[in-house]
């Protein structure tokens, strides 16, 4: 009796593990999830619980181990399978042409060569070793021959498969793959914003943030950072079966790893140069930092014949972009008040060109940064624009000082409302205490109407200035009580613009839950976090009453953010504004979901289907508005049973839930 139920449990754990792995892969590698985050969380939590109750049944390399392990005292060193080389640089087109001639001479050929060109990811080089398809070791590049063993940290990266998928290219006995760990730009900006608000040290660029996260001795900290990895090279592969670098990249994809994106095959130097220019122009729009392109001779046989010079291969080159670093001078420093009352010191600069953009201001983040770097008014500085449109002061050129430079001090009174400025015990940030500080109000109104929040056209800075100065609004809800003739009487307004704004305000009330939550301007909650909240809780009430603990359990929400959200909704005044907004007639839609014949129906899949992969079945169901859940419960509408089903088929019978076989599902999908 006992063994039977244990077998059932084992099957269920195996199935849940496969499901969680598959959904995680769809989300983090393919970027095409087929279930909602809350459905994923449900699966994940159930797997955690079963594994906790029966640790002996947990699958090796279970996705639940991706949350980090016990901290270590120091990293041990590991030998790379083959040396990790570095790249030589090309700086212009002439050098590119010389490069091609040089290797043609070396190969004694006039034939055109084929290249693969890739973006050069500005991250941290690492090597991953898979033994029989399982991740065994992850290491830093180190000196090229030996690096540090950071397996525990690498394992926490969401898109790194702990086991290679076996439905594509044959999985080699030994696979050493090289790649670049990077910090996505959006996450980097969020990290720095949080650090800026807390008055902590901010990172100069995403690369430094990635390095900081990777060298944590406590992998739980690494797990809390949104690191990602692109693969771009080969170490030892046994058995080796590729003819070209492009083949290798395709195999990586089939194993569930992420090859560098936007790669291209080029057949001459003109194409390479065009690619480099194209990437440079697309650079700002990419969600990660790149600092050039890499060109590689595609044929592995030719790569072997070309070999290496010193520490760099003869068959590959980096072709970098124009630098985003420059020097300029600080003309003045002023404190700006943000919507949460934090005073941020901002430097006005002697205007300078940085990779095509004229830079006039730079955030100095907080007082600690200024003191740490000893930044003074009048200083010559090195600035960098990386992973952010907002440039960063890298360092002061102290040797250029002539004695006229002045030290900056935070004002004791808010520059806007003259309220006291304070620095809380244990916090480095300075804040304005003024409850009615117009700067805070203006910022929060601007944010309320901004593109990612309620997108209210016509609610510009000049208008907000007047609304606040004339005390026409004291909070965002007051916007909805504004009268057309009052608006029309304001400077630079008029009957037409007043009418348009009233219409825009009316329109803004039909919005999504996530936009509404974004618009509230909760500290640490931007568009992405608001989406996560909306998806997870499904209603404003759900989010408002969740409480800190339940919030911490949501994927991608850490303790600090959870505390900030719970604190926001616990505040009487905030609740009053929300009530006022709802009373003004807001209609919040849950996030868009597909609608169709299966809307409202919940399916559970078990066993393997003949003509459909589980993923395909899932996609077809969600495309018609249905949901696919991981577990059978009284809320399940149908259980689809294939060959060798797990315990779920039994559970369905027990609960009297209708069972569909493959043909039944097919018929239902076709009807839809
Ligand atoms: S191939 C033997 N491809 O840049 C050639 N490297 O400056 C090995 N990098 O150590 C490198 N993106 O960490 C290659 N698409 C890409 C890359 C890339 C970034 C890094 C890599 C390398 C460094 C050399």
Structure description:
This protein is α+β, with helices and mostly antiparallel strands and 672 residues long. The chain has 5 domains: 6-65, Helix Hairpins; 77-320, 2-Layer Sandwich (D-amino Acid Aminotransferase, Chain A, domain 1); 332-407, Nucleic acid-binding proteins (OB fold (Dihydrolipoamide Acetyltransferase, E2P), Beta Barrel), CATH 2.40.50.140; 433-589, DNA polymerase, domain 1 (Orthogonal Bundle), CATH 1.10.150; 602-671, Rossmann fold, CATH 3.40.50.10190. The protein is built from 24 helices and 28 strands. The strands form 9 sheets. Strands 2-13-10-3-9 form a 5-stranded mixed sheet. A 5-stranded antiparallel sheet has the order 16-15-14-18-19. Helix 1 packs antiparallel against helix 2 (37-53). The chain is globular. The mean pLDDT is 90. 2-(butylsulfanyl)adenosine (IVH) is lined by residues 85-87, 118, 120-121, 125, 141, 180, 232-233, 260, 294, 313, 316, 318.
């Amino acid at each position: 009796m006992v063994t039977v139920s244990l077998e059932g449990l084992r099957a269920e754990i195996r199935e849940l593990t496969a499901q969680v792995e598959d959904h995680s892969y769809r989300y983090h590698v393919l970027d095409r999830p087929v279930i909602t985050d809350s459905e994923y969380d449900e699966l994940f939590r159930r797997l955690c619980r079963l594994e906790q109750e029966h640790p002996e049944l947990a699958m090796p390399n279970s996705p639940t181990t991706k949350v980090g392990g016990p901290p270590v005292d120091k990293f041990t060193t590991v030998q790379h399978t083959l040396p990790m080389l570095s790249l030589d640089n090309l700086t212009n087109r002439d050098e590119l042409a010389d490069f091609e001639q040089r290797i043609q001479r070396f190969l004694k050929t006039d034939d055109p060569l084929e290249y693969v060109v890739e973006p050069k990811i500005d991250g941290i080089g690492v090597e991953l070793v898979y033994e029989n398809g399982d991740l065994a070791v992850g290491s830093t590049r180190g000196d090229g021959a030996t690096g540090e063993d950071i397996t525990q940290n690498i394992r926490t990266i969401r898109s790194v498969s702990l086991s290679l998928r076996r439905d594509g290219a044959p999985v080699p006995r030994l696979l050493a793959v090289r790649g670049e760990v990077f910090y996505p730009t959006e996450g980097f900006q969020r990290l720095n914003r949080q650090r800026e608000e807390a008055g902590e040290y901010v990172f100069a660029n995403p690369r430094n943030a990635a390095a900081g996260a990777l060298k944590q001795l406590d992998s739980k900290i690494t797990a809390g950072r949104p690191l990602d990895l692109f693969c771009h090279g080969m170490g030892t592969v046994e058995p080796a079966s590729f003819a070209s670098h492009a083949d290798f990249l395709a195999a990586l994809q089939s194993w569930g790893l992420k090859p560098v994106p936007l790669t291209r095959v080029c057949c001459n130097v003109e194409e390479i140069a065009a690619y480099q220019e194209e990437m440079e122009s697309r650079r700002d729009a990419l969600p990660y930092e790149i600092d050039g392109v890499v060109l590689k001779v595609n044929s592995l046989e030719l790569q072997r014949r070309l070999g290496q010079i010193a520490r760099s291969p003869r068959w590959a080159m980096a072709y970098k972009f124009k630098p985003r670093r420059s020097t300029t001078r600080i003309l003045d420093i002023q404190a700006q008040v943000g919507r949460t009352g934090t005073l941020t010191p901002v430097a006005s600069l002697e205007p300078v060109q940085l990779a095509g953009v004229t830079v006039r201001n730079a955030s100095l983040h907080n007082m600690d940064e200024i003191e740490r770097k000893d930044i003074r008014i009048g200083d010559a500085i090195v600035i960098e624009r990386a992973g952010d449109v907002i440039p960063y002061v890298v360092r002061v050129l102290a040797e250029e000082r002539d004695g006229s430079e002045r030290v900056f001090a935070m004002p004791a009174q808010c520059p806007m409302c003259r309220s006291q400025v304070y620095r809380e015990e244990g916090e480095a940030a300075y804040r304005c205490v003024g409850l009615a500080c117009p700067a805070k109000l203006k910022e929060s109104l601007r944010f309320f109407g901004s593109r990612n929040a309620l997108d209210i056209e016509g609610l510009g800075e000049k208008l907000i200035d007047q609304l606040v100065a004339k005390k026409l609004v004291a909070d965002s809800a007051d916007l909805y009580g504004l009268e057309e003739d009052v608006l029309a009487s304001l400077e630079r307004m008029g009957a037409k613009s007043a009418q348009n704004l009233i219409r825009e305000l009316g329109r803004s009330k039909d919005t999504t839950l996530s936009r509404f939550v974004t618009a509230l301007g909760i500290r640490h909650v931007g568009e992405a976090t608001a989406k996560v909240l909306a998806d997870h809780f499904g209603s404003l009430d759900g989010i408002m009453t969740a409480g800190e603990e339940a919030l911490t359990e949501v994927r991608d929400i850490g303790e600090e953010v959870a505390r900030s959200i719970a604190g926001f909704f616990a505040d009487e005044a905030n609740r009053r504004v929300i009530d006022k907004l709802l009373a003004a007639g807001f209609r919040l839609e849950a996030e868009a979901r597909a609608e169709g014949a299966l809307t409202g129906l919940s399916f559970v899949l078990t066993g393997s289907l003949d003509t459909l992969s589980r993923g395909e079945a899932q996609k077809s169901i969600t495309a018609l508005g249905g949901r696919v859940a991981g577990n059978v419960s009284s809320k399940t509408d149908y259980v689809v049973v294939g060959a060798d089903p797990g315990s779920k088929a039994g559970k369905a019978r027990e609960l009297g839930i209708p069972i569909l076989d493959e043909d039944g599902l097919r018929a239902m999908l076709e009807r839809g």
